[in-house]
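To: structure desk
From: M.T.
Subject: fold request, one chain
Message: Could you run this one when you get a chance? Sequence is below, nothing fancy, just the single chain.
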Amino acid sequence: MAFAPPAVRDSFSYNGELYVDVGNLNRHKRASVAEITQVLRPDLTKSKKNAPVKDPVGHWYEAQLIHYGLPPSKDKARAKMRLLENLNNAHLNVPPSIISLESDLKKEFAAAERKIKAQHKAAIAVTQSTSAKEAQTKKRKESDVNVTDFESTTVKKEPAVKKEPAVKKEPAVKKEPAVKKEPTIKKSNRTTPAVPSLGLINGIYDITCPAIEREWDYDGFTLILTLESPSVWGQYDLGMFSGLLLIPERPYSASNQELPFSWRGRDNGEGEMSFGDDCRGGITFLGDGRIEGWINVYGDCPFEGQRRLGPGAPVRSARSMYDEWDMYNSDEYERERVGRWH
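Reply: Done. Structure tokens follow.
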């Protein structure tokens, strides 16, 4: 059991093992190359008896990137691909700087642990000494008490005073039962608020996304939506991140119900594409052209939007977005990856 608090430096902490904090109180220790291989390449594990490993959460992958000195990403799909790429190329090694940092934190934690254990041991010794003295003093006081000094004496009771006979009360007159009044119904002056209409779906939406705006000082984000019943296609431009999204079920009225969507796109800083089941988000059509939702291009990024005034004709065709959607695939990703390394 550790007594000392963890030794901390930057996002790393040590309390017997090295952890990295990726935000929102999410901390993860470093997984070994064998453990990462079992997660990302179970086909390479020697023992066939190993049960399938459950896919870890997105911030676990982000933490492993930091542990191994690789550029971190809050996008789970991108983080997985980056780890897999380095694993396949035998580049998954802990850099010397992190090994040195771990050694320093380990020494710092061990010194603090020794100091606190010494203080704890000294405190226990003082407590035991004080308890022994108190017990000895109590025993001495009890021996000084002379039991013979306490003689029992009989106290003569005073004669009881005879009570006066109680005066008999007159019988109470029974009251007539009160007539229960009918409750009055209070009239309400409130009026039921009007439910906003859904409005047009096709068009350009001006988007605000505080998480990305704070991180990269971008603004002027947009989202283009095109209705192709029963689905809705979209093209998002969030500065550092851009791509397409697909809402399988279109809304038919304004509501607070969130509609899930999937997305495929790029990190415009590195040019790396993302696609797959981990690329998710949600959107709510609040009515009168207002929307809100989230997209996990950089963690779960909340956003809000308002449709620009304009006609209801599509700004971009659903067919063109469908064709572009198919270009985000594993073959294209591998071709681009080889191009980056050569």
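Reply (cont.): Helices lie at 33-40, 58-67, 76-88, 96-143, 210-216, 318-325, 330-341. Let me know if you need anything else for the meeting.
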